[in-house]
Amino acid sequence: MADRPLHVVFGAGNVGQALALRLSSLGFAVRVVSRRRPSALPVEVEWRSVDVSDPAATTEAAGGAAVIYQCLNAPYSKWVTEFPPLQRVVLATAERNGALLVSLENLYGYGPTGGAPMTEDLPLVATTVKGRTRATMTQELLDARDAGRVHIAIGRASDFFGPGVTEGSTLGERVFGNALSRRRADFIGNPELLHTYSYVPDIARGLATLGTDERAADQIWHLPGPETVTTRQVLDLIADEVGHPVESRSVSKITLRALGLVNPVLRSMVEMTYQFDQSFVLDSTKYEETFGEAGTPLRQAIATTVAWYGNRHDAAHKDRSTVASPALSGSPETERKEPKP
Q1: Is residue 141's pLDDT more than 60?
Q2: Among the ranges given (41-50, 71-80, 117-126, 315-324), the one the predictor scored with the smallest mean pLDDT
Q3: For residue 140, which of 217, 211, 68, 86 has the smallest C-alpha distance?
Q4: What is the 8-class DSSP label of residue 102?
Q5: How far apart are the first and last CA of the chain?
Q6: Can you tell me the distance from the alpha carbon of 62 to that of 66, in angstroms, rounded to the nearest whole number?
Q7: What pTM was computed for the model?
Q8: Cα→Cα distances 69→80, 90, 93, 132, 228, Å
Q9: How far apart (Å, rounded) are the C-alpha atoms in residues 253 and 37?
């Protein structure tokens, strides 16, 4: 790594892993920092096990970084209390290392826009607990920038989907997985409204651009993704790919609130349902006009995601068949069931 700029990615979830792969393909030295080893990283990508709540260990793990990417998250039911401290540690780490900080954000800070497209110059006027938390986290980054303590680039994306995305997404297992298995697809809100969905490979490509193009520094950017259509159109495209109709069910706010009585994750989602009760459109014109990059066409992104789910389904079916056969497994017949989403 001595002769190449070091890019350090904090967080090894779907976006963090995709970003590490993208940066490595561009020829940069890449280090991923997370508690647990990612399932798939190329041998040329270094990995370090670190608890980011430990400032000293975190600073050491990022030693020598030219660019630091904040792709961490926190459990959704504890998002408000656990996420801000994690970002503060990463921010302080970037300051100590003199590194550019590229931070991935969602769109909570804007709050409801009445269906108007979201642009980077919108004020952060959210009224929800998570929205106010996100706005405060953003302001901490901007204050550090304005004080000259660190250079930053903020990349914002909407609800994400893609290969490997199963949980923690409205377009995950309960939509793609259910559709492939001929089960009813579940989603939140009104499917006839426009809604921007971000594709993980596009998010990774956008963050890599923010970390490698000097024009991105000290600004906020909406990362490009597939074209915005209604959720109903997304379901229709999924049906085309799986080769059969996809039945769907919309989970209402009342139902979500009732389910939240016994499920803290669902309970914490209730306040954010406004995103699915009005058009939710992310405008990435600024990014596309500056860097000349657009997102992956929606049909292509959905086809790739369905193919990933299909391969996983086939592999799981093969595993069950192998274990269930005494002649092949050499052990008593055992039934292995996939966990229900």
Answers
A1: yes
A2: 315-324
A3: 86
A4: E
A5: 41
A6: 9
A7: 0.89
A8: 20, 9, 11, 22, 27
A9: 37
